[in-house]
Amino acid sequence: MIKFACFERTVEILYKYVVPKPRSDCTKGEQLIVTFIAGYIAGVFCAIVSHPADSIVSKLNANPGGGVVSAAKELGLAGMWKGLFPRIIMIGTLTALQWFIYDSVKVAFRLPRPPPPEMPESLKRKLAAAES
């Protein structure tokens, strides 16, 4: 779920702050580039979030019968983060490719793509009132 939420939020941010034109004005190729970049960022985020827990699980698999707390103590804080960079490269690339392939298939088969999410009018009014 984190990967999906991060991907969607990253797409919104890229179109709002990085891409110099609205999504509706972008070509399919430009949209696919944004998809790849957002997928990579989502993959990196998920790799960072899940790495300590995955390190503990790997330690538990290597030493059956041990507990989570003992595995965490044995690894230590630095040990839980060991190997993060290769994981970022692997998960970031895989996630970017997954989203890119998914969107490419939708483009190839001319399947509808959902419009970017819009902020609800009630929230727009509330923000406008807060800025005043």
How is this structure best described in words?
- It is a single chain.
- The protein contains five helices and no strands.
- It has helices at residues 2-18, 28-62, 68-81, 84-108, 121-131.
- The longest helix is centred in the middle third of the chain and has 35 residues, at 28-62.
- It is an all-alpha fold and 132 residues long.
Summarize the structure.
The chain has five helices and no strands. The chain has helices at residues 2-18, 28-62, 68-81, 84-108, 121-131.
- What percentage of residues falls in helices of 4 or more residues? over 70%
Radius of gyration over C-alpha positions, nearest whole angstrom: 20 Å
The shape is extended
Alpha-beta content class:
mainly alpha
Mean pLDDT: 89
Order of helices and strands: HHHHH
Strand content: under 5%
> Would you report the number of β strands?
0
Question: Ranges with pLDDT <50 over ≥5 residues?
Answer: none
**Oligomer status:** single chain
**Count of individual helical segments:** 5
The description of the largest β-sheet is: none
Give the key terms.
0% strand, mainly alpha, 5 helices, 132 residues
Write the layout of secondary structure elements.
Elements: H1 2-18, H2 28-62, H3 68-81, H4 84-108, H5 121-131
Helix pairs in contact: 1-2, 2-3, 2-4
